[in-house]
Design goal:
Elements lengths: L9 E7 L3 E4 L2 E3 L6 H12 L3 E7 L10 E5 L2 H12 L4 E4 L6 E3 L20 E3 L3 H8 L6 E8 L3 H12 L3 E6 L10 E8 L4 E8 H15 L7
Helix pairs in contact: 1-5
The protein binds cytidine-5'-monophosphate.
Cytidine-5'-monophosphate (C5P) binds next to helix 3 and strand 9.
């Protein structure tokens, strides 16, 4: 698309990986670096959008010209994304959101007790933010996109996930071994709810980001944020 095809638009991108606290010093986390989400934020800003980046525990520096909201857990990420999405033309969920969190948060550091086995760790489900955004459509015409990392049968699992989440676009990539996490490059297929399939060859995360914005821009109704 044109260099300023997102001018007048507000877009929200989530990035990084959530940390689900067990106690003040410990958490359950994942290996997401935030690079793909940050690339999405940078490329949207370069194309003229006002960008809110909801960043979960990323070590990356704030991109210039982007509003960055830093969060920790999935519950915090949900609050920040829903708030920012209220007037957004598009939302891209690139963050790795934990499916589960510890059922109990200990306000003091959990201690080992001499001669005693550890307690089993009870978990509860986190809200599915992508599914919630897709169902709610907080603004008329809002385009909602997500990411899915799959290890096998990538397209079939991707199609099923797209339908389950109810989003407009799902970027599906194959993960495993050293693939994707922390890497500078990515390879993916972008599935559309309209049945489209856009393969993106192995290359910089910026290139995949631009393809995602191309597909989103094509789905946006005319006009933009007031
Ligand atoms: O279900 P799965 O975790 O594979 O889906 C990945 C997609 O769903 C990503 O876009 C991720 O940001 C989003 N997600 C979410 N809330 C969750 C889990 C995943 O929004 N609790």
């Amino acid at each position: 698309g044109a260099a300023t095809d997102l001018a007048g638009r507000h877009v929200v991108v989530s990035a990084g990986g959530t940390r689900e606290p067990l106690d003040p010093v410990r958490f359950l986390g994942n290996r997401s670096s935030g690079k793909q989400g940050y690339a999405l934020a940078r490329t949207a800003a370069a194309r003229g959008a006002r960008v809110t980046l909801v960043a979960a525990n990323s070590a990356l520096p704030d991109p210039a010209g982007v509003d960055v909201v830093r969060v920790g857990s999935a519950v915090e990420l949900r609050e920040a994304v829903l708030r920012a999405a209220a007037d957004a033309d598009a939302v891209v969920m690139a963050a790795a959101v934990a499916d589960f969190r510890p059922a109990v948060y200990a306000t003091g550091k959990i201690k080992k007790k001499d001669g005693q086995e550890p307690e089993p760790l009870a978990l509860v489900r986190n809200p599915d933010i992508l599914a919630e955004l897709s169902a709610a459509r907080l603004r008329a015409g809002q385009v909602v996109a997500g990411f899915a990392a799959e290890t096998d049968d990538v397209l079939a699992h991707g199609r099923a996930k797209l339908a389950a989440k109810g989003c407009d676009l799902l970027v599906v990539n194959e993960v495993g071994e050293s693939k994707t996490f922390g890497a500078e490059e990515n390879e993916a297929v972008v599935l559309g709810a309209d049945g489209t399939e856009t393969p993106v060859p192995y290359g910089p995360k910026e290139a995949l980001a631009d393809t995602v914005w191309d597909l989103i821009a094509a789905r946006l109704p005319a006009g933009g944020s007031p």
